[in-house]
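Why LuxR family two-component response regulator? Reviewers of the renewal asked for a concrete example.
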Amino acid sequence: MIRVLLAEDQAMVRGALAALLGLEDDIDVLGAAADGEAAWRELQRLRPDVLVTDIEMPGLSGLELAQRVQRQQLPTRVVIVTTFARPGFLRRALEAGVAGYLLKDAPPEHLAQALRSVHRGGRAIAPELALEAWSEPDPLNERERQVLRLAGDGATAAEIARQLHLSHGTVRNYLSEAISKLGVGNRIEAHRLARQKGWL
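Here is what the prediction returned.
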């Protein structure tokens, strides 16, 4: 049996995924979490073979969950199921050790096939994204990404400095660097472009 944990913040989608996978003879859905922190607790408690997660959730994102799994060297394989058909997200997911990346508009049978493939040690990547993922490298470093994400949420440079335990000047430098790398005029445009590319 392939033991699966689901992490999805939308109740209807979470229920549909559980019902869909419940129809498969060789897949056992151990549980489902509505946010990233709950998913992390359940993941440690249940030790599933595969975590099926969305990217954007309250608490921890699917990418952050994958990074934790990788850092802790847990045996759980991670499959992301998302609406984000953005090469930047796929690239970051692969760097975080994700074994599968599927789009929510894919045919339902693809998910069960992907879980079997991943469970056997393979990969399952949406083919329409696989080639594109490496066409445009992400120019931002992790700190620039953090600062830009907070700026996009409306935080001032002083608030970002407090949250990240940095000096005000350092935050301004990171923002300036991100704006320059993305070739835009201000932090709002930088945030918008980075989100559109899947780099945040």
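The mean pLDDT is 90. This is the kind of structural detail the renewal will allow us to pursue systematically.
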